[in-house]
Amino acid sequence: MGVEETIAGTEAAQIPKQRGESLLETAVRYAEERHWDVFPGTWLEAVDGVQRCSCEDPACAAPGAHPAREDWATQATGSATVARRMWQKQPGASILLPTGRTFDAISVPETAGFLALARMERMELTLGPVTLTPARRMEFFVLPGASVKVPDLVRKIGWSPATLDLVVLGEGGYVAAPPTRFGSRGAVQWACRPTAANRWLPDAEELISPLAYACGRDR
Question: What's the pTM?
Answer without folding.
Answer: 0.89
